[in-house]
Structures are given as C-alpha cells and as structure tokens.
C-alpha cells in the first residue's frame, strides 16, 4: 500500500465530472442549415433567371405616370364620317333622229360625160344640226343647275387593315410566353381574337366579331375564356337594342357605338388613324363598353407622345389612359398607339388594385403583301421579329401598316 494514496485529478472548469450527464448541445442540427442554404440558392437562381429572361431582347419600360393632363375636350360617340357616293356622270344626249331624205326623181338622159358620185357624202337635211345643238345645250344647263350633295359630318374613321399581331406578355415586368391578336377586316365585317398565355392556368382567350356600321366597329358577340373555365358570352342584339349575357339573366340597353373590352382598342385606333392631330393632351374620348356581365362608360384621355421600348428598339407612341370609372376605382388601363405601326397598339398595360401589372408589348412587324419574309429581318427596325423565331405566323408577311 503506498503511503500516499493516488487521487483522481479534478476536472477543469466547465468540464463535467465523471458519471455526470452531459448538457444538451444548444446549437441547431447541421442538416437544417444545409437545407436552408439549398433553398436560398434555389430562390436566388430562380430570381436571377427571371431577371435575365425579363431583360433578354426587351428593354424595360417605366410604369405609367400617375399624373394625367387637365381635360380640355370630351368627345362622345357619334356617327363616323361617310364618304359621299360618287356622282353619276350625266347621260349623253340622244342624237335627234335624222329625217329620211326624199328620193330624187330620175333625171332625163343627157348627152354628157357621166361623173362617179358614189363616194359623195349626202348633205345634212336642214334643221338637223340645230336640233342636236339644242339637245346638248339643255343637258349642259341641267348639269350646271344640279345642286352638289351636302357634305356628311362625323368622326373621321379608318379601320386598321387585316394582320396577325404578336406581343410579349409580362407580369410585373417578368417575361412570359408570346401573346397574339388575330385581326381580320374585309371592309364590311371584322373578327378579333386575343390570346394571352398565363403560366399554370392556361391561355386567356378573348374573341369579338361583328360588322362595321355608321358608328364604326359594331360587335355582335363577345366571349372571354380564362384558362379551363367555360366561356362567358355577351350578345349585342342590334334588333332589340339589348345586351344579353350568358353569365347573368339580366339584360341592358345597347347604346349606339357600344364596344366590348377589346374591340374598344381597335375603335380608338380607327378614330386616331382618321384624325391623329385631333388627339392632343387632355382630349378625352368616351365609349360605352360591355363586359361579360355589365355595361359601363370608359373615358380614355390623351396623355401625350412617349417612347416605348419594344423588342428590336424604341418607337414613338401616343399614350392614352382610362380615367377612373367611379370614385375609388383603382383598376387602370393604359394603351400606347404607334404611328409607325399604323396607330396599332404598341403597348397595353392593365394595373390591378393590388398593384399587379399585366402587359402586352409589341413584338412583330407587319409587312406589305408583296414583301418576302426575309425583308423583315434584313430591314430591321422597331418590332422586327427574330430570324430564329420559328413561331412567327406566316400572316405577319401581310402588312398592312
């Protein structure tokens, strides 16, 4: 036995004694930290990809300005100006009948050299020339005394020609798929189909067809289908002057010049095409517009000429904004019509009350019918489609400005 029994060394400060339970570790498990880093990296990659896609091939446009000019004129719907029919040319006066010449009696034979008078022209009977002259004089007097047709007053109107229009669609500035506006105008009837792809929901399709009347574009039926939902239809009954809806049993009176939610843009473009100098800042144009269950008055005020950044470059466009329909109305619609596109819409922005912005931005360029498709790539300019874009419709080759 040793003189000095061996003693166990004392544990250092903070070190648990032998046999004592070890306190739990206060640090979070490492696996949660790794998942948080992975999630953060995925979010950062998605955000970077969205920003890159939003900037690729398209410069950003500023949001619509809140201030609008002071209203200087209010234009209400009225008949459009109709060109007077061409005047029929005056009928040529009928020539007076020539009286038959009396047959001469055979002359007695004489002893002389006979002349060959077979080619001699017969003399006009007396009084025939004076009758023809009198007839022509009376016709000239009638044409001079005829009153010219009175000029017909109204809005100057020029409907955009047929074309397939393509637009980049953006939601809060982030690029989505390509939207299209299918527009047909044969001078008597029209058709308009707007297709806007919405991710995870399906396309929003708005269609309108009808005819042209004394007030311009006259819809007969308007329908809208959002994703996989059944379409809601509005019928413009011109005979009974009623708006009939499939979404509600109620009907409403149909006003002259009434439009639907998308034909109103072509009606506005037709009016501006007819008299562009008339739409100065502050000039406001009213429309009666039918939705899928109601009818209300829309007032578009001219803001002014601005620059729109579209695929391929910048273009000048005239900015119109829809004024609030009622007190507290925070839903807003802005449209830019470009003279270089024949006053077709270059940009359309709808701003929801919660701040969500949905945008259509010009992408295609219409070409004259005689111009081959390659000219669109070689000439360039605002809105020229990419040569590598295989989705460009063939109808883009048919212009019309």
Write up what this structure looks like.
This protein is of the alpha+beta class. The chain has a domain of 248 residues. Helix content is 16%, strand content 32%. The chain has a 16-stranded mixed β-sheet that branches. The longest helix has 26 residues. It is elongated, with a radius of gyration of 40 Å. InterPro entries: DUF3108 (IPR021457), Formin_Homology (IPR051425). Pfam families: DUF3108. This is PROLIN-rich signal peptide protein.
Number of strands: 16
Strand content: 25-35%
* Series of secondary-structure elements, N-terminal to C-terminal: HEHEEEEEEEEEHEEEEEEH
The pLDDT mean sits at 76
- The total of helices stands at 4
| Main sheet: strands, sense, barrel | 16 strands, mixed
Q: Gyration radius, to the nearest Å?
A: 40 Å
Protein name: PROLIN-rich signal peptide protein
Organism: Caballeronia telluris
Biased composition (Pro residues): 82-107
Region (Disordered): 1-31, 79-109, 367-401
